[in-house]
Amino acid sequence: MMCSKEYIERGENAVLHTYNRFPVVLERGEGVRLYDLEGKEYLDFGAGIAVFSLGYGNQEYNQALKDQIDKLLHTSNLYYHVPMAEAAEKLLKASGLSRVFFTNSGTEAVEGAIKAARKYAWLKDGNTDHEIIAMKHSFHGRSMGALSVTGNSHYQEPFKPLIGGIKFADFNNLDSVKQQITEKTCAIILETVQGEGGIYPAEPAFLKGLRKLCDEKDILLILDEIQCGMGRTGSMFAFQDYDVMPDIMTSAKALGCGVPVGAFVLNEKTAKNSLVPGDHGTTYGGNPFACAAVSKVFDLFEEQQILEHVKKITPYFEEKLDLLVDKYEFLTARRGKGLMQGLVVTGRPVGEIVTKALENGLIVISAGSDVLRFVPPLVITENDIDEMVEKLEKSF
Ligand SMILES: *Cc1c(COP(=O)(O)O)cnc(C)c1O
Fold this sequence. Notes:
Layout: H1 2-14, E1 26-30, E2 33-36, E3 41-44, H2 47-50, H3 59-71, H4 82-95, E4 99-103, H5 106-125, E5 131-135, H6 144-148, H7 153-156, E6 166-169, H8 174-180, E7 185-191, E8 193-194, E9 200-201, H9 204-217, E10 220-224, E11 248-251, E12 262-266, H10 268-272, H11 288-303, H12 306-327, E13 331-337, E14 340-345, H13 350-359, E15 362-363, E16 365-367, E17 371-374, H14 382-395
Parallel strand pairs: 3-15, 5-6, 5-7, 7-10, 10-11
Antiparallel strand pairs: 1-2, 2-3, 4-12, 8-9, 11-12, 13-14, 14-17, 16-17
Helix pairs in contact: 3-11, 4-11, 12-14, 13-14
The structure holds pyridoxal-5'-phosphate.
Pyridoxal-5'-phosphate (PLP) binds next to helix 5.
């Protein structure tokens, strides 16, 4: 215990206290397991918040990163490099969209999407008072733009004034969105599956209705796939389950599987009529190291048939979670898609269960105020699920 305690204390004394961290010092990972400084093992159903899809210590992934480090880490965006062309092509092929801008994070991807949407509208009419409709209980990040479209007043309040022209509608309520639309609306932004807000998948009729609405009024549909994308729902991107295409998609989290990288990806129409040289930039975004990671992630998804695996294991996972809902009175519902699942906890604090689970060697996280969130690495097996259930029940 000596060791962890020391680093927790040193961390607390040096790092700005913006997180109430769990009292664990993680040191290394292997497969779907993490180990702390004392060597205690944790079964990981959080994957660093839906990031480490391939599991820890994937040799091929690690080797690709090591090779790129030895070649070239960074160039700036003033030059071309091989990994960027490769990563971009793979991302476009996987998404069905036509142009990508790489960022360092999800938040920055959302910022870029907002700027692209505003520029698109500005080019049409020259006005500077365009509006964006976002969803209540959404999460898009913490920078001023991304925070402005995040439907959580607790996160927003101390940082006002935020960017102007943002309106909020009810998720999965088409009429509520219609009521917010004006001549000035330039974009609608939403998560295909709301993550932080409590694991709410979009209903097919809602998403299809939004697409139709956007087409009729030449409004851009921005789908935030930062958490629900990259295979988590069993499709490469969650919108592909709905037969609906966004005009702009944002990606991050599992895109680099641990290397900080994000992207906003545009369709042809939006790419041709928005950002041009001088409009947007980044020093690090899409550097050779980040792009080598993205490129390898797409290769490994194919080689290891990750999507097929997620589709195959999802029914088993859902069945086990449903059994828990049947068995425990305080578990009142299951929601989710693929390996992005939530259990609604009623009448007792979720945080207590999360803490207890950690003690029992299981990492799960919360979402919203009352949801136990499961976003494991996409390579989990039925045995891992059984072990998770056993450890979770022990924590009740
Ligand atoms: C995590 C997340 C973000 C923010 O991404 P960062 O990489 O933390 O900046 C934005 N949108 C959604 C849906 C997310 O889950």
